[in-house]
Amino acid sequence: MTDLPPPDPVAARLHFIPRLIRPIQTAVVRLFRGYFENAPGWMLLITRGRRSGLPREVLLPCIRTPDMIMTISTYGMRSDWIRNLRKEPAVRVSCAGRFVPARAEIIDGLDRKRALVTAHPFVPAAPFAVVSAVVLTVFRRFWVAFLRRWVSARPVVVLHLTEGSGKLPR
Q1: Is the pLDDT of residue 26 over 60?
Q2: CA angle, 114 as apex, 109 and 116 as ends, to 5°?
Q3: Residue 122 maps to a domain
Q4: How high is the mean pLDDT of the chain?
Q5: The predicted structure's pLDDT at residue 145
């Protein structure tokens, strides 16, 4: 049996939306930059543009552990930041008000993706403390089941600190 790549998620057809709202996202990041650089459920990811070679910054929901930062690509492989990571996995990521160097690993294997979201579930659509607390306690079983299905058509990205960066603050 051949391991075929998963089909694009349905959301990949809506990838034009982030491109349309890019100016709004840029304005929000600029306005609330201090918050997003320190927020535990968000990260600013700086990749190198695959064609231009210029730094590209994107705001993404995430979960942090002492050893890694994890996020899920809603739009699958169509996301520009994922395409940039494929070409150049060396990135910088916001963490406790500073940017640290990291190496991105795009996880495509279904078993590994499911193991990661089972061990480290998070609420990517609403990384607010109260919402996350309720979802990850009262509804944890249902949420983990949803995430395990959600990642079947989406890449999971794990960011590993490069040497000398120390441990990740939560």
Answers
A1: yes
A2: 95
A3: no
A4: 85
A5: 95
Inside any domain, residue 2: no
Buried (b) or exposed (e) across 139-167, using 16+ Cβ within 10 A?
Answer: eeeebbeebbebbebbbbbbbebeeeeee
Q: Sign of dihedral through CA atoms 111, 123, 80, 101?
A: negative
Cα–Cα nearest to 90, from 46, 36, 56, 52: 46
Domains in the chain, number:
1
pLDDT tens-digit map of 136-146: 889 999 999 99
SS3 for 11-57 is HHHHCHHHHHCHHHHHHHHHHCHHHHHHCCCEEEEEEECCCCCCEEE
Q: Is this structure's pTM higher than 0.85?
A: no
Closest CA to 116 of 167, 161, 159, 84: 159
Q: Which domain holds residue 28?
A: 10-108+156-161
Provide the CATH number for the domain around residue 102. Answer: 2.30.110.10
For residue 25, which amino acid is it?
A: Q
Q: Give the end-to-end CA distance of the chain in Å, rounded to a whole number.
A: 41
